[in-house]
Specification:
Blueprint (H helix, E strand, L loop, with lengths): L3 H15 L3 E7 L20 E7 L2 E6 L2 E6 L4 E6 L13 E8 L6 E7 L7 E5 L6 H4 L22 H6 L9 H11 L12 H22 L4 H11 L18 E4 L4 E4 L1 H4 L16
Antiparallel strand pairs: 1-6, 2-3, 3-4, 4-8, 5-7, 6-7, 9-10
Helix pairs in contact: 1-5, 1-6, 4-5
C-alpha cells in the first residue's frame, strides 16, 4: 500500500508531468472506482491541470478548480504512458480508470489507475472542493506539517501501532511506516499510547519525524514505476519477517491478523518477548 512518502513523491512527479496539460478525457473502466456523480467526469474535458497536491494518502489533481481526488487503497497504483492508442478502455480487469491529457503533442499521454486482486478499495472522487471527500474531511494532522505535535494525540487508550495507522488521528502513516517508526523508537507495537513515559514519547516523536523525512527524501524524484521497489528496499523490519535485524542481529518476527500483519524486532522493541497474535487470543505488551 502506498503511504505518505510514496504519495508525496507521486504528487511531485505528477505535478511535473501534468501542470499545464489539457484534460482530453477521464474514462472509468470499473463500476466501483468512481464514488461521485456531480460534477460528472465529462466536465473535466478541455480544462487545464493547474496543480497536484496531497491530503494524507489522497492525491488531489486540480483541474481549473475542479478536483479529481484519488485514494490508491491497498492494491491500487498509477502507471504513466506516453503512447495511449485511440481505442477506448474496456470494463473489467485490473484497469480502473484512464486519465488522458494533451501536453502539446496530441491526446496520447496520461496515466492509468490499476488495482490488483478481487477486493476493490481504489477510489476516485470528482468534486469541487477536496473537503467534500469524506476521508479528507476526517483526516488528522499531517506529521510533516509545520507545528505538528504528536504528544497531545497520544492521550488515548489505544495500542500505539493502531494509533499511528488511524487516519483520523495522524494522516498518512500506514502499516509499513508504522512498523518502521516503532522499530526506530524501540517500542512494542502493542504498547498503550496513554501509558508511554516521557522518554518513550520523545523517542516516538523523533522516529516519526526522522523515518518519514528520510523516506520522503529517498522517494522524491523517482518515477511512479520505481517507487514500490524503492520502498521495499528501505524497510528494516516491515515485510522482513525471518530476516536479520540490521540493528541488533536478532530475527525479525511477525504478528498475523485476519487481513494484515505487522513485523517487529523482539530485541529492539519488546525486550526479547515474542508477541502473540489473535489466533491465541492473547496480546503481550
Amino acid at each position: 500500500m502506498p503511504e505518505m512518502p510514496e504519495v508525496e513523491a507521486l504528487v511531485h512527479w505528477l505535478q511535473a508531468q501534468l501542470e499545464g496539460a489539457v484534460v482530453v478525457e477521464i474514462e472509468p473502466a470499473s463500476f466501483a472506482v468512481l464514488k461521485t456523480y456531480d460534477p460528472p467526469v465529462s466536465s473535466f474535458a478541455g480544462l487545464t491541470v493547474s496543480g497536484v497536491t496531497r491530503h494524507g494518502k489522497f492525491i488531489d489533481i486540480d483541474v481549473d478548480g475542479l478536483h479529481l481526488v484519488i485514494h490508491l487503497a491497498k492494491a491500487g497504483w498509477l502507471r504513466w504512458s506516453d503512447h495511449f492508442g485511440d481505442s477506448r478502455v474496456k470494463m473489467g480487469g485490473p484497469l480502473a480508470l484512464r486519465f488522458r491529457v494533451d501536453r502539446g503533442s496530441g491526446p496520447h499521454e496520461g496515466f492509468d489507475l490499476t488495482e490488483a486482486g478481487t477486493r476493490k478499495g481504489l477510489a476516485v472522487y470528482a468534486v469541487r472542493d477536496p473537503h467534500e471527500v469524506p476521508g479528507i474531511e476526517r483526516l488528522g494532522p499531517d506529521p510533516l506539517a509545520p507545528g505538528f505535535e504528536l504528544r497531545p494525540l497520544l492521550q488515548r487508550r489505544m495500542q500505539v501501532k493502531r494509533l499511528l495507522r488511524d487516519q483520523t488521528v495522524v494522516a498518512g502513516i500506514g502499516n509499513a511506516y508504522s512498523d518502521e517508526i516503532l522499530h526506530a523508537a524501540r517500542l512494542s507495537p502493542f504498547a498503550i499510547a496513554e501509558k508511554l513515559d516521557d522518554d518513550e514519547i520523545a523517542r516516538l516523536e523523533e522516529a516519526v519525524t526522522s523515518v518519514l523525512t528520510e523516506a520522503v527524501a529517498a522517494a522524491d524524484g523517482k518515477p511512479a514505476a520505481d517507487l514500490k521497489d524503492a520502498k521495499r528496499e528501505r524497510m528494516r523490519v516491515h515485510g522482513r519477517a525471518g530476516q536479520t535485524c540490521e540493528v541488533c542481529g536478532d530475527t525479525v518476527a511477525e504478528v498475523v491478523f485476519a487481513d494484515s500483519s505487522l513485523q517487529y524486532c523482539p530485541t529492539c522493541q519488546t525486550g526479547g518477548t515474542i508477541l502473540k497474535d489473535r489466533s491465541t487470543s492473547k496480546f503481550l505488551k
